[in-house]
Amino acid sequence: MSLLNERFHAAVKHHPHKQSLLTLELLARQTSNQDRLNALTDQALKKLADIALLGGAVCEWIQFQPSLLSTLELPCPGHDDIQASVAEIAKNKVDDWEALRQIRRAMTLQIAAAEITCQNEEVPQIDSRQASALLSTLSSAIVQTGLEWLNLTEGFAVIALGKLGGWELNYSSDIDILYLSESKNPDFENRARLLTRELESAKAPGRLFRVDLRLRPYGRSGALVPSLAAAVKYYQKQGRSWERQAFVRACHLAGDADVGARFLKEMNAFVWDNKVEASSITKLVKLRERTAKDVKNPEAHLKQGPGGIREIEFVVQFLQMLHGQENESLRAKETCAAIDALANSSIIWAKEANALREAYIFQRSLEHLLQLKHDREEEIVPGDPEQRSILAYPFQMDLKSFDEAFIAHRRFAQSFLADVLQTPFSQSSDADESRSFQDAILQQDPKSTAGIQFMQDQGFENGKVALKNLVKLGHENNPLLAPSGRARTLLAGLAPTLVEAISKTSDPDRTLKNLTRAVETLGAKATFLQLLLQKDDTLKIFIRLAETSDFLIQSLARRPGVLDEVIDRLQTNQRVTKESIDRELALALNRPDPHLGLTNMAAINTLHTGIHDLSGRYNVQNTGRDLSFVADGLINGLLTLAYRALESRYKDRPRTESGELVSFAVMAVGKLGGSEITYGSDYDLLFIYEGNGKTPDGTTAQRFYHHLVQELITFGSRKEFGSDLAPIDPRLRPGGSKSLLVSSLSKATRYYAGINKGENAANWERLALSKIRPVAGEVEFGRLASIQILKACEEGCNEGLWKNIRTMREKQIKSREARNLKVGPGGLADVEFVTSAFSLSHRSDYPDLRKANTAELIMALRQHDFLTRSETQGLLTGYQYLTTVNARLRVLEGQPSALLPKLAKAQRALALRLGYVDTANRAEENFLEELQFQRSEILRICRGIIGREESKSQA
Known about the structure:
Layout: H1 2-12, H2 19-28, H3 31-39, H4 42-54, H5 57-64, H6 79-92, H7 97-116, E1 118-119, E2 123-124, H8 128-149, E3 156-160, H9 162-165, E4 174-181, H10 186-200, E5 210-212, H11 228-238, H12 241-246, E6 251-255, H13 257-273, H14 278-293, H15 309-323, H16 335-344, H17 350-374, H18 385-392, H19 399-425, H20 432-442, H21 449-457, H22 463-472, H23 486-503, H24 508-519, H25 525-534, H26 536-548, H27 550-558, H28 562-571, H29 578-589, H30 594-614, H31 620-650, E7 663-668, H32 670-673, E8 683-690, H33 701-716, E9 728-729, E10 742-744, H34 745-753, H35 763-768, E11 773-777, H36 779-796, H37 801-815, H38 828-842, H39 854-863, H40 869-893, H41 904-913, H42 923-954
Parallel strand pairs: 4-5, 8-9, 8-10
Antiparallel strand pairs: 1-2, 3-4, 3-6, 7-8, 7-11
């Protein structure tokens, strides 16, 4: 025994557990085993040590049948080896069922040793897929032998379903089979019962198989051996969704091959020719959910728990059924082969296929270990850490790594099922009209009568066009970029909720059309639809976007890829900031096509801001601020491109005689100066330089910077996507449109201060420059220039400022339409002129009146008693209200227009976009009444202020 003990220890020294040694010593105590154990080679003994680590049923087989030890010397049998060995039993030991049990034990032990024993230190000889295939071949050979012994080879066939049908049987799986006969034969029933009894007999350790015949027509109450014709009739007439799914993995196992082939051919129509309907999906999902609820200890349940084996098989078979009608390559029976086929056909991502396959193989391997230990369908991973560490050893993992891998695989599989099926369909309606509508989406049928009627019933004026637009949302343009079919599945589940939400918008047909146009450019529509399914607030945001902004939708449609980026930002809760714009600007300028980089940067951030605005997350000030961040970034980027364009011509910027660069800055004035622009706003800019200098070729600083600004404006006005990238307006420069685009700081200050004859600025120009700030160029120079220009504007304002404002506003009101929200009576201009006039008149005495933002300036004016409490409240409320209305007008078309729509339908649509409740169909009336009230209040208050201040100046 001493030699034997040394070899025992040598065999188990690689094991971290004592269990292997204890089991080996138990086997050695049997006298009949000692000689056999001593005869084993070191390699065979190592195999035995690995098997002994599991203990349990396989070791009981060895104790019962010691001759099994010698099989460990043999290599893993191949499929031909198995068939040959069983065939020899069939021929030489007729009706000896114990001989079949012995060969089953021997072959199973050889296969198990090859799967769980690591050869060459690291890699097992076979993996769980190969082991399952060999076990399936073994079961087929044994059943075939039983049929031969019982004279059931002609006119009688055995069909395999489930794991056996996929040729992926476990060590102790039930075999799901179906008996069939050519025609009804009572004798076949008796012999089939005998076959079942012998297969299940447990007279000695290790029965052949547990047999499950419940998948036959009518289940337990049906005939044990139905005729081929009767079986086909049942499935075609009464077959249910879960039965159809069961036959995805059906194959001929044994018996009459012709009978089996004819039956499976007839069943193809049942499994593959019928389209998968939304109602079927819903039933399958709910059945799966009910089954999962009945599972005890679900987190540890390998088969039925969340993300377990059954869920992976369930979702793979569903995808096969959904797409297998038109693609026969998807009809693979083995699960991993089916996963590969789905990836090869771009139904799922390659990375999803890899993760799903790994999750399935890991859990199947773990299932094998549990079944070898217990010789039954054990499916609960033990909670005891010691027992789990034993299971972790064949994976070459420590316990921590094993537990982490188990959890990670389960989570992925669970999320995959939720993404593909559960989220879209678990809440589907049972109403017939809703199911028929979903079928139209699932089958991508824009001509479906039921679908068209459903859309019309939901309030769409043109149901045919509406359904066509909706179907487009589920069509992936490029299956290489996104899994084909995923989008239409997700859309079919989402469609009822989506259509209901769109039907409540101001113009459902236009909203749906806009949404379709936006999503059409997406690289992966499935990702977008999945986001809408998972996040109800995102669904509302994008419907709101499609309802309220043709401008932003057009921006999306013209720029493929923009929406993908915005979706990523929404998912990660990113915001538009000056710092984020600076980072993106640097990246855009380093692209091969920097102008395109700037275009996409502007589009992404404008859309991002618009979504926050339209969803109610931003107020008008937040929106103006972020849109101004975007404008600032664009101006800086365009200035860089302009400098690059002049490099080859001028070699260097203008320098003074001492070699210093002539300073240059871009100043924002007006709305942009106050960081309160809206969609489609012009960028009012002032271009200032200071210093006498020349370029190396003698070009003056004024001429150089004039050319620079020309280049900047040219870059900004390029219409690659249908509109100006940066609508720059330089008309507020000294001298207006007749002068050069740039001005020296000294000339500008003289102009705004009114020092030079014939070069005096009008008061309205000075008021516009009350909101001035540097946005590009030399920032410090720009800051100093803004101080000097503002001081000049203050000096230039005379005592007739308030009279000028009154006269100017009277002229504007007479010359413009009353429906103009900017310069019409009680318009935005009233508030802006009044507040800017206070700012210019008193900013020297009150530094906080230098605020550029109008709303902030109103509050500062109240603090210094320039406005009464009621004036402050009226102006602030009215200004924010008009700004919001103006923004909703601008975001619709993206054009610099402040005209209220003339048509009642358009007014109604605007009212609904503004959030007016359509009580008694009075949304537009309520809106117009509120608008008239706010404008009247603004006009009353501003006229009162102007009159008061004009009187003070005359006193």
